[in-house]
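As a warm-up, study this chain.
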Amino acid sequence: MRQKNRGQATVEFAFVVFLFFMLLFAVLDIGIYAFDKMGANEVAREVARIVAVGSADATELEKINSRLQGMKQAKLRLNYYEADADLANRLLAVAAKLPAVSGGNLQLGADSTVTNGNIRVCLTAAPRFKIGFANLLLPAEFSSGNVEMRLEN
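Now compare it with the structure written out below.
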């Protein structure tokens, strides 16, 4: 009888270890996803605050630029309700201070879904890892932060 059960414990151990490591890596991957999502929200909130207030010091801008450079393929979209020369100048001034999202990675424009007198900032970034559990369940650009903030006069 002992001869037939030989190796059974090894096979069971292999199954349990495989499932344990799959669960462990899934939890780590979802944790990284949550960390990236919170980081994107923080950067979007900071950019919205800078645009709403109309000014920022060099350390704030350096912090935002370093966070944006750490994100893969970061794209920043700044939307407002209607065309306004003062607001357009504010947006362009902030965009000039954020070289991490220059060129095609920055979009400025009017959007009728934004509440009048507000600014909406949307930041999207590609996932850090090509292979991961979160990539199977979530869209390609899943690290996103969306903030709508009232403009200060």
